[in-house]
Design a protein that fits this description.
By secondary structure, the protein is α/β, with parallel strands linked by helices. The chain has 2 domains: about 220 residues, Spore Coat Polysaccharide Biosynthesis Protein SpsA, Chain A (Alpha-Beta Complex); about 90 residues. Helix content is about 55%, strand content about 15%. A 7-stranded mixed β-sheet has the order 3-2-1-4-9-6-10, sandwiched between helices. Strands 5-11-7-8 form a 4-stranded mixed β-sheet. Strand 7 and strand 8 form a beta hairpin. Helix 7 packs across helix 9, helix 8 packs across helix 9 and helix 8 packs antiparallel against helix 10. It starts with a helix and ends with a helix. This is Nucleotide-diphospho-sugar transferase.
Length: about 375
């Protein structure tokens, strides 16, 4: 009986061990499955990260077919390959559609045509809604960037909401580019990349009611939120900007007054990063005043030149008139002198004739006397 009990106990122990072994095996299998799932998720996340664009480049375009090809080519051929390029064709009537059709086979490229024309601000806002990149960049269609531009800025973007680069500019009728003073960067958004999550979190978009200086307004509202930012060093990698109507250099005095006295300024000043904003607007106003002074001086110089030309013309006419009168007087005197000379000559001739007659008569008298 004791032996049977021992055998039964051993069997129970063996069964218990088998159950424990199976449980451990099952637990290990489940653990391995969980690890595999986690690895798969990490791989998926990594793939998503690799597929997700690092920078979405937004290009609003309106009748810029002449420059658009260059702009897109520089955007797609960035050394930072993981980018997407979004062009918003704002009801262009030139060859813009023809240019855009050249790039439709590139998976990184997309474009949207809108009707009727809505302006650059609306185009940028649409591009921001479509963007899937970690950061957003802007290029105006008649501008372009160096091929290394976005890689250069992205390398500085860790733990930053915005990274500010450098840009140079030219006038509309020139291909020579010049560096902007640092304070003028506020009037251009193209030299900066903006973290999309920060933009979306604060629902930041361009003000479509503004006719000019929408770049400055947008940057001011962003800075008012005190973003984490960094200024990129000047390493010769630029955004090439064509100065146009609406640029910082062309703001009207009334707009600057509104910025320096209105709500926009209070938002801008609230950023601790820009305590010198008053100085910035002071410089803007000084530039406007200098512009008006130069125009006034040019007008005054033109008036002086006009008066000088008129006076000179009148003086020439006066001198010419006097010369004519003098010549007439001289001609009259010459005619009188000639008449006097003729009269004198006639008188001399008459005297000579009389003398000849007298001599002849004397000779006759002499002959008569001799004969007698």
């Amino acid at each position: 009986m004791l032996i049977k009990k021992n055998i039964l106990l051993n069997v129970l122990i063996i069964l218990l061990c088998l159950n424990i072994f199976n449980f451990i095996k099952f637990a290990n299998a489940e653990s391995e499955k969980q690890e595999e799932k986690q690895e798969e998720k990490q791989e998926e996340k990594q793939e998503e990260k690799e597929i997700k664009p690092l920078v979405s480049i937004i290009i609003p375009s309106y009748n810029s077919g002449e420059y658009l090809d260059r702009c897109i080519e520089h955007a797609l051929n960035q050394t930072l390959k993981n980018v997407e390029v979004i062009v918003i064709n704002d009801n262009s009537s030139d060859n813009t559609e023809v240019v855009l059709a050249k790039y439709t086979n590139d998976k990184r490229f997309k474009y949207v045509s809108i009707h009727p024309n809505h302006g650059a601000s609306m185009g940028r806002n649409m591009g921001m809604d479509l963007a899937t990149g970690e950061f957003i960049g802007f290029i105006d269609s008649d501008d372009y960037v160096d091929y290394e531009f976005f890689e250069f800025l992205y390398k500085l973007s860790e733990d930053k909401d915005i990274v500010i680069g450098m840009f140079v500019n030219s006038t509309n009728d020139s291909n020579k580019y010049f560096k902007h003073p640092k304070w003028e960067r506020y009037g251009c958004v193209g030299d900066t990349i903006w973290r999309k999550s920060f933009i979306d979190e604060h629902n930041l978009r361009f003000n479509t009611t503004l006719k000019t200086a929408e770049d400055l307004d947008f940057r001011g509202r962003v800075y008012a939120l005190k973003p984490r930012r960094i200024d990129a060093p000047d390493e010769g990698i630029y955004y090439y900007y064509k100065r146009r109507e609406g640029s910082l250099m062309n703001y009207s005095s009334s707009f600057i007054d509104g910025m320096t006295n209105g709500a926009n300024k209070s938002e801008f000043v609230s950023s601790s990063e820009h305590r010198n904003v008053d100085f910035i607007f002071f410089k803007m106003k000084i530039r406007q005043y200098l512009k008006h002074i130069i125009i006034a001086l040019v007008v005054i110089l033109l008036i002086i030149l006009l008066i000088y030309c008129c006076c000179r013309h009148k003086t020439k006419n006066f001198v010419k008139s006097n010369d004519n009168e003098k010549n007439e007087l001289l001609n009259d005197e010459d005619e009188d002198d000639i008449d006097d000379d003729i009269n004198i000559d006639n008188e001399v001739d008459e005297i000579e004739i009389v003398n000849d007659i007298n001599e002849n008569e004397d000779n006759k008298n002499i002959k008569i006397e001799i004969i007698e």
